[in-house]
Records
---
Amino acid sequence: MNLEVFSIGTSGMMPLPGRFLTSALVRRDGDLYLFDAGEGTQVSLKMLNLKWKKIDSIFISHMHADHVTGLPGILMLSSQVDRAEPLYIYGPEKLKEYVDQNRRILDMYINYEIIVVPVEEGLVMEKDEFSVYAFPLSHTKPCFGYCLVEKNRKGEFFPEKAEALGVPKGPLWGALQRGESVRTDDGRIVESSFVMGPERAGRKFSYITDSLYFPQIADFVRGSDILFCEGMFDSSLKDDAHSKKHMTAREAAMIARDGNVGKLCLQHYSPRYSKEELKILLKEAQEVFPDTILTKDRMSFDIPLKD
């Protein structure tokens, strides 16, 4: 079961050559889940040759232009292919008005159902094998971070234990792997736990953008394999960052460290930083959390299964 994360755009405030506005995408078993849709999102998706028809859901953090201006294009783009499934869009309360007004004013031809779901803290979407949770951030508008969390997988099946307990290979093995108990030919009951290892943890991806730093963020993202987090400014501009309710790269690293995440991927950079100057953000973050990288547009990350 593949789980991949793609950085679609990494710029904050305005797009730059080679740096589209903020967006990230998760591909799980072929289905796509988009987080924010800044200007240039559909261009970046095209460059990655990702099949936008497979976008199941879109999660919007907040109603600032650099996070939603790519959404109308995505909606119209999805009408260029046959789509029977509805598109779910999750986000703050104002999101439905934004989608409805764009559809009306632009007279969009939409050949599929769009369902806009207002977000509150907690569970926002549940599938058979994973869930998506929202948590509040502290910005100038209502803003949410998101975590995509896989449910625990069944433990490993040990066929040698089943054989030793006299369970013949075949349907009874399948029943044990489904968590059922079985009866052997001599009448003994063999419990699934006798031949199965402990449950294996699922994987976790977290997405944060546009927020003041506060320590509780680490609790929401705890244990993430990959954390995408804004690193808008360096520490010399801390006062400026806080006045605009953003965080510094160092503060993003503090969240990663305190949340015991696997990898921190900085994103949503201020346009004041050139490509070379972004190394200032990286250096500051790595002093606190060494496993930090500067995320670039169309960079991809594979999250392997946990044994």
---
Amino acid sequence: MSVASQKTHAQSSGFGETVKIVVQALLLALIVRTFLFQPFNIPSGSMKETLLVGDYLFVSKFSYGYSRYSFPFGLGFFEGRVWAAAPERGDVAVFKLPRDNSTDYIKRVIGLPGDRVQMIDGVLQINGEPVKMERLDAGSDEDGDFVRYRETLPNGVEHIILDRGHVGLDDTRVYEVPAGHYFMMGDNRDNSTDSRVLDAVGYVPFENFVGCAEIIFFSVQEGAAAWEFWKWPWTVRSDRIFQLL
């Protein structure tokens, strides 16, 4: 074989190996995204202060088992869930919006199947009992003034909610959560479109759950772009990175 032929063969082998590595990497990434962890970013303030605009987090796809919505573009060819594990009250979960089954929402699991959920004067009621609220402090943001409370759910899960006064959905009907469905709410209670709005979100079928939010892996200030790495020293919220949810 001539030197030129050897060089051409080496170049061809090198290109083939590169393509093989790229394909393997893409397949591995697809497997991880589909079955293990999927990244999401937060576009709105409905989950303040647990999640802020500009947070990037990993959602575990295996926490609740798998449904057709676990797959890209909802391409799973089966109904219901396999290896199912029920969400727990207080979980921060990603789900497909029931009215279109394509939009991703992230809220907190508040009501379980069979629960009765209601808001009375801004206080969450579950099965006729008010949820414990401890006032912490007051603050303000671009949406106005708020009071910060520590809310403790019946199973002991604690989280921070923001209350902006007697506005929005502070007083509601009694919601009776159907079998196989869950009642989801945002922590920014007066600035969240959630299960309290039946024609927008309503009760979420178990099948629509994508996964459980586990950890914030990156965070930039609202209005900043994560890819603008030359601004990172000033736009990165380093105190939020690796926060568990």
---
Amino acid sequence: MSTVAEELAISTPDGTMTGFAQVPEGDGPHPVVIVIQEIFGVDDHIKDVARRFATEGYFAVAPDLFYRQGDGLTVSYENREDAFALRATTTPDGITADLNALMAHLKNDARVNSNVGIVGYCFGGGVVYLASHAVPGISAAAIYYGGGIVPRDDAPAGSPNGLDNAGAVACPVIGFWGEEDAGIPVAHVERIEAALRDAGKDVEFHVYKGAGHGFFCDGRGSYNKEASDDAWPRTLAFFKRNLGTD
């Protein structure tokens, strides 16, 4: 399917949120997939993911959640210190406000329909979990190695725990995780899945042997082709079931 690249400009309470969109040619209306960045920003990899969804018939948008710090900021994969510093400038309330602004913007675009999915990677995976219970109108949520959902084992007592919100998750969830991910132990993945199942949610998780954090990004040293090649068609099938396609 032929697609066209566009720049995003979304009005929010804190200014204009920029970002990237790749949209199918034609009037539509098309279902939407919101693509949430890693801590490295809306870089070439995230733009490529949006393009891949667009060729499948989705109106793909990748909002820049770091826009408060500057337009189009990206950080190299080797510069983790600056990437973590950028992530630290975000807050759950700010992200929720940004995504609600994006949803309002999409409702006014005649090229899209009301079926909206969201997918995110690393930092973005945690954002997807947040959106699944805090942003009305999300129809399907795909989490790739989402961090911050469960507090680290060494986190202070009383640290926020995303599992407390499992009962409020309002859409089906699919998740993809690396068995060798040092930052997100399999035990944490199992806790997330159990919390969602216990809350009666539609959940499907996949854990890949030999894969670590960031296995889907072909620009990172942790890229795992086997895991990536398995996760992609599962993601497409999940969105097709819950959003449809053109």
---
Amino acid sequence: MSYIADTLGNLVHQTAFFNLTVGNYVMIAVACVFLYLAIAKEYEPLLLVPISFGMLLVNIYPDIMLSIEESSNGVGGLLHYFYLLDEWAILPSLIFMGVGAMTDFGPLIANPKSFLLGASAQFGIFAAYLGAMALGFSDKAAAAISIIGGADGPTSIFLAGKLQQTAIMGPIAVAAYSYMSLVPIIQPPIMKLLTTEKERKIKMEQLRPVSKLEKILFPIIVTIIVSLILPTTAPLVGMLMLGNLFRESGVVRQLTETASNALMYIVVILLGTSVGATTSAEAFLNWDTIKIVVLGLVAFAFGTAAGVLFGKLMCKVTGGKVNPLIGSAGVSAVPMAARVSQKVGAEADPTNFLLMHAMGPNVAGVIGTAVAAGTFMAIFGVM
């Protein structure tokens, strides 16, 4: 009987109940809220489901993120190996290739002025950088945090890894992906506050047709120009444009399908779960994390506002030919931000179709965020 009692006692003490802290339970509750938002509300479920499940796993079984050095047998936890691919900038670069293969750059080519709207929305990045410096973060940490303002999760992870800010990579990535997922909630109030109903009803002229030659040349030319000016952006911009060249060349259909479907979804699973697994209670429930989350929200709001305000300026300059709502799509959340511009415009006038016009600034925002990350890397001498 004593053997049975000892065995049962050992089994009971092996359960997670005896090892979890209050913080772990808090993070488990947060993970469940994220799962609810992803499944019931469908807020970017492809991102939130793996992120929140990774959060759930690491707070029940912390050893799932155990590093090789900390392990007694030289074997790390499962999600630790996924996370190494984030640190090495492999998964963020592959995500960009998938985005390029899935995205039509035609609206940006047809309306090059969209680059200006995409650039204006990057104001949130520099606002976050200054804010992080003011809150006591180091210059490199502030730069890594600032990319949250562009609502670009892969670039946030990429820059944090390159600047060796792995200690705060988890909070940065979770904040960036969370705000990407919450674009439909965060952006509309800002867009409506800064525009009049008359402006929201503006109908834009149909974009000109873009030739196949233009679509093929665009990724090649952008890669050459941007990489020559900022070589450090080559992993992100290069992969983005390679994916788009797969799509537009028309001769590598298998590669396009793989990059935009199977590979993209595999990478999302690996990246999402590993990012979520960085949110252990010990690493996440502290003042630095709270500062990062708040800074990210403020920066994202600033970026959205800057894009809309520059859209209003373009509206004035063009005599009312530009709907300011498309400026909010200058953040990097593709294509969610463009869909939000369409939705808010359609609420003012159901016959208003802004989606393709908003895709121009949206794509420009992706390129702009990568350029901002490359600029920070050049400033700090990181290759």
